[in-house]
Amino acid sequence: MSDEHIASRHSVIVRLTHWTVVLSVIGLFVTGIGILVSHPRLYWGETGSVGTESLVDLPIPFTIGPSVWNRPFHFLFAWMLVLTGLVYVAGGLLTQHVRDDLLPARADLRVNHVMRVISEHMRWNRRGENGTASYNVVQRLTYLAVVFVLFPTIIWTGLAMSFGVTSVFPMLATALGGHQSARTLHFVLVVLLLLFAIVHVVMLGRGGFWTNVRAMITGFTPLGGRGR
Amino acid sequence: MSRPLTRRTFLAAGLATAAGASGVGAAIRYADRFDLIPPDHSGVVGIGETLTYATQRLLTSRHSLAREFTRNDISRVAPVNGPHPRDEKYLSLLADGFRRWRLSIEGLVSRPVTLSLDELKRLPQESHILLHACEEGWSYIAEWTGVRLASVLDLTGMRPEARYVVFEPFANPNQSGSVVRVLWDSIDVADALHAQTLLAYAMNGDALPADHGAPVRLRLGRHLGYKNTKYLSRIVVTDRRDLYRKSRGTWYGGI
Question: How many CB pairs under 8 A join A and B?
Fold first, then answer.
């Protein structure tokens, strides 16, 4: 693959874990909705039920039944996500992916630089970018936040609803305000993840949607192509 | 950096996969010896169930206690999924204050016993204020009073081969499915001997209401609501894995 018309883009660990995470997140999202519809109300604190005051009543009709068989699949996909996440983070640290591709350069963290990158994104303007092999500062900060803040807190709020887990680590639930608070935050964080996923897919259009998807599958991107 | 697949890396990957697969097989046999494999371990969903059960069993040391609350935390509303049975036998026991009700504890025990409600109440009594969460998403806090299952199993003794404790509700499960939602269920010995596993006959200071499982229900500190079998009539200690439950959802409820 020393063809001079293509450049190496994503390592095999990044590609495999990326698509496994995509699969498990889709699975978690679908089964999560399957659980949510059996009680589409959100509360704060430890308790909440029909007949008590809710924080939000989601505009979804109560549908009893699907939660029972969606829950086991939800945990199956959760295990898939957690184990893949561990492989990604361990691999990312060992191969310097985190340091080289995700941690922003100190100089790039200046506020006006960040603002300029954002405004270029807003205007769909790719001027001033230094090629496909490197993420810009906004991408780096976003990916770091998703990998090291959003996913861990989604997993935390999920575990905080487990009686087995909170019997060992009660702080996981109490620090969030209780069982129902954990459930509500789990929902809110998933909405944030969904927003990220939408923006992420839309942004693939910059530099060519298929060029970017192909790079994440094969690991390579054509030199001089639109993907630069 | 990514390199193309050569024959050597392909062979190495194949050997590693074979070694990994036999390693997983050995690990499963080893894990089973330490009671880390749940009865519903088969199928795709069984992979997640087994990972969850084994991880929690290793993590929780079998003794960790669920969070307890204060009387001030007790919820005003305590919802019920499925009202009490409507068959004649249950209704006549209910009308009689369960004086003719008996709980039988049998199976792999040294001394099978049959206890009346009064006899059960004469055993050491304790109360726990616990969070009860339905797998649907709602939850409430209530105080449960009863006897530790461990105290009852002390009376009967458990044979060393015992692995699971099966709970049969009093009502005939063959009535309308919506009446008795959980037909029968089981827990492992670790949960049976757990300090917060109660045979509860009182709730918030009063006799257990009919819809909450009168006269006696199982109350587990570390499980979701559906594992807390109501309207108990028979407890069977067993080593049989195929008898674990006639209900829906995953067997392990500490999730």
Answer: 129
The pTM of this model reads 0.90
| CATH placement of domain B71-243 | 3.90.420.10
Q: Are A43 and A52 within 8 A, CB to CB?
A: yes
Across the interface, do B139 and A179 touch by the CB < 8 Å criterion?
yes
pLDDT reported for residue A4: 53
SS3 for B115-158, per residue?
Answer: EEHHHHHHCCEEEEEEEEECCCCCEEEEEEEEEEHHHHHHHHCE
Given an 8 Å threshold on Cβ–Cβ distance, is A168 in contact with B60?
yes
Chain B residue closest in CA terms to A171: B67
Rounded to a whole number, what is the distance in Å from the CA of B178 to chain A's nearest CA?
11
Q: Rg of the Cα trace of chain A?
A: 20
Q: What is the pLDDT of residues B177-198, one digit of tens each?
A: 444 444 688 999 999 999 999 9
CB contact under 8 A, A167 and B136: no
Cβ contact (<8 Å) for B73 and A41? no
- Closest chain B C-alpha to A144 CA, distance in angstroms: 20
Helix and strand counts by DSSP (H, E) for chain B: 6, 10
Contact between A164 and B76 using a beta-carbon 8 Å cutoff: no
What is the rounded CA–CA span in Å between residue B246 and residue B173? 10
User: Confidence band (pLDDT; 50, 70, 90) for B174?
Assistant: very low
Tokens coding B218: 């199982």
Q: What residue ranges define each of the domains in chain A, with the CATH number in brackets? A: 6-222 (1.20.950.20)
Burial annotation A68-101 (CB, 10 A radius, 16+ → b, else e): bebbbbbbbbbbbbbebbeebbebbeebebbeeb
Beta carbons within 10 angstroms of residue A4's beta carbon:
7
In this predicted structure, which of A20-24, A95-99, B144-148 has the lowest mean pLDDT? A95-99
| pLDDT tens for each residue of B118-145 | 999 999 999 999 999 999 999 999 999 9
Residue A174 contacts B where some CB pair is shorter than 8 Å: yes
Q: Count of alpha carbons within 13 Å of A85, Cβ hemisphere only? A: 18
* Measured distance CA(B212)–CA(A163) in Å, rounded: 20
